[in-house]
Amino acid sequence: MAPLIKRLQQETWAECRVLATAQHRGMLDQVLRLFDIKADIDLDIMQPNQSLPTLTARLTTRLDEVLESEQPDVLLAQGDTTTVLTAALACFYRRIPFGHVEAGLRTGDLSNPFPEEMNRVVASRLARWHFAPTQGSKDNLMREGIEESAIHVTGNTVIDALLHVADRCDDASPYKGEQRLILVTSHRRENFGEAFQGILRAIKSVADKNLDVHILYPVHPNPNVRDAAYAQLSGHPRITLCEPLDYLPFVAAMKQAHLILTDSGGVQEEAPALAKPVLVMRRETERPEAVAHDVVKLVGTDYDEIVSSVQRLLDDPAEYKRMARGVSPYGDGFASGRIVDVLKNHFDV
């Protein structure tokens, strides 16, 4: 949302107020600093070991209090988090128009990703404006009965943010070595357990077999991820486990990487724009456009499929070149401006 916030703050017709739920406190604060944004309202919602039902209930109540106090003409939220779900619901109860940024992403399976797919579907039923990143996302919404007039293909503001920092982040990378770098992100709830153990075994196998490769894995703090990752991978000479990276060094690490192994969502959009091949450790993706362009490949959580796919990109220059083409189906860096134009037209300014 940062590029959209900055763009709205430049508009004389709008007063842009920033509400942070702090669902991801550490990630939030460093991005606000990077983009020089100050939250006007900070709910600081997270508590240790908080369940999804508890989080959902607390967010809905707190957001309703804010809406009663602020009385906004519009509320905008991005993505598929519980914050987005509850923001849409609170706006519905208050009859406040809700705009969903990054609308229309679907896997068609409510359990993958969990709970994000459900969050998206419910938010779409409640939104007044659907700011879809691609034509495919628009098609998903129309199949669900959303009126075409309410859908606007804008690109994704994620790409706006990426391009804003990509040219000034090189010195921020935490990896200073000379080996080919594989960047790993893996933390999906649906992969917890045996699937995640298979992922970790595959990562270790790649490091064992390739002396000219180094693996950088910023480990999510969830104990289901952290405990297993450190148990299997710590101490390996060609694997670096570290705390989650701030946005600037993470973009630098993506630029530096030879390839990226991930189960994350946004990385599937960002890395292709940086001409980096992406192997996605999931059975399904809500971002099929990059798969269709052959710059992202679904490898699931099967040990053999992960290892063989990584090895092919390491050993086969033609295959690597085919995937490392710099395709960006999710935006051109101007999504924020398009969203602002839609709102200006609504308010006739």
Automatic annotation (TrEMBL):
Entries under Gene3D superfamilies matching the protein: Glycogen Phosphorylase B
A Pfam family hit: Epimerase_2
Entry superkingdom: Bacteria
EC number, as in UniProt: 5.1.3.14
Domain UDP-N-acetylglucosamine 2-epimerase, chain residue ranges per copy: 6-344
Catalytic activity: UDP-N-acetyl-alpha-D-glucosamine = UDP-N-acetyl-alpha-D-mannosamine
Keywords, sorted A to Z: Isomerase
Molecular function GO labels: UDP-N-acetylglucosamine 2-epimerase activity
InterPro entries per record: UDP_GlcNAc_Epimerase_2_dom, WecB-like
Family: Belongs to the UDP-N-acetylglucosamine 2-epimerase family.
UniProt cross-references to PANTHER family, sorted A to Z: UDP-N-ACETYLGLUCOSAMINE 2-EPIMERASE
Protein name: UDP-N-acetylglucosamine 2-epimerase (non-hydrolyzing)
Species of provenance: Caballeronia hypogeia
